[in-house]
Amino acid sequence: MRLAIIIIALSNLQAALGVAQIERIEEFLKAKKKNYLTYQEKIGQSRYETLGGVPDYADNNYWMYALQIKKEQIGKTREHATLSSFKTKNIQARPLWTLNHLQ
């Protein structure tokens, strides 16, 4: 078995920024969780969409919010149903990635 060693070199500026961000990590995580809970409350009332949850065995840093659209019930694709709707309300959203088996 071969191991690859990857060296990442940060400039002094990048390292200082990283340290400053780490010092505020609890504040950032608290804000992200608050946003998630707000979205979950609002979207929880929708019969067309669900917001991805957190399994009982895991913890979450809430770096992204996965919105799942029930295409069978709404009869539209995510682009028509959600992305265009968000755009008209000045909410930034985009598809995150294509499923691996479709790439």
What is the top-level CATH class?
Alpha Beta
What's the alpha carbon Rg, rounded to whole Å? 19 Å
Write down the CATH topology: Aspartate Aminotransferase, domain 1
Provide the helix percentage: 40-55%
In the residues, how many domains can be counted? Answer: 1
Query: Globular, elongated, flat, extended or rod-shaped: what is the shape?
Result: extended
- Which architecture name does CATH use? Alpha-Beta Complex
Taken as a percent bin, the fraction of beta residues is: 5-15%
Order of helices and strands: HHEEHH
Quickly give the structural class. mainly alpha
Distance between the termini: 29 Å
Determine the mean pLDDT. Answer: 80
Number of helical regions:
4
* Unreliable spans: none
The profile of the biggest β sheet is: 2 strands, antiparallel
Structure in words:
The protein has 4 helices and 2 strands, in the order ααββαα. It is mainly alpha-helical. The protein has one domain: Aspartate Aminotransferase, domain 1. The chain has a two-stranded antiparallel ribbon with strand order 1-2. The mean pLDDT is 80. The two termini are 29 Å apart.
Any chance you could write out the topology, listing elements then pairs?
Blueprint: H1 12-23, H2 25-43, E1 49-51, E2 67-69, H3 71-74, H4 78-88
Antiparallel strand pairs: 1-2
